[in-house]
Amino acid sequence: MKKILGILSLALVMFGFAACNSATSSPEAVVKAYLTALQKNDVEKAMSYCHFKTEMTPEQHDKVVAGYSDKLAMVNNNYQGVADFTIGEVEMAEDGEHAIVKYNIVYGNGQTKDTDEKVIKVDKKWLIDTGK
């Protein structure tokens, strides 16, 4: 019985690692995870898919969270949130470490917007390139 529980525990841990890594395994996957987090109003989760050039102090982190929260509140108030999105074309840079992911957002009020995100590969994970 202990052997079966041990195997099941190991399988759950491995599944958890696979689920975390799948969100950053490709340029499309990280943009999808990022947009899904924003769609759910989860700013902290959305930020976990972002790359910042320098480590932030707690004060800087709070300022960035507040900025994201303000922008998200504006989208929710003016556009009734993000109803859906579609990931489009990916323009991969020659170095294989940078890409631009195009996507279309459908807002809750029916308006749509074509836009894109720059992504960067850091330590074998794709992340949104904040440029900061």
Structural description of this entry:
The protein is built from four helices and five strands; from the N terminus they run H-H-H-E-H-E-E-E-E. The chain has helices at residues 2-22, 27-39, 43-47, 58-79; strands at 50-51, 82-92, 98-107, 112-122, 125-129. Strands 1-5-4-3-2 form a five-stranded mixed beta sheet. Strand 3 (98-107) and strand 4 (112-122) form a beta hairpin. It is flat and about 40 Å long.
Summarize the structure.
By secondary structure, the protein is α+β, with helices and mostly antiparallel strands.
Anisotropy-based shape: flat
Describe the sheet with the most strands.
5 strands, mixed
In the residues, how many domains can be counted? 1
Distance between the termini: 51 Å
What is the structural class?
Answer: alpha+beta
The strand order across the widest sheet is: 1-5-4-3-2
How do the helices and strands line up, and which of them pair or pack?
Layout: H1 2-22, H2 27-39, H3 43-47, E1 50-51, H4 58-79, E2 82-92, E3 98-107, E4 112-122, E5 125-129
Parallel strand pairs: 1-5
Antiparallel strand pairs: 2-3, 3-4, 4-5
Descriptive keywords:
132 residues, alpha+beta, Nuclear Transport Factor 2, Chain: A, five-stranded mixed sheet, 4 helices, 46% helix, flat, disordered N terminus
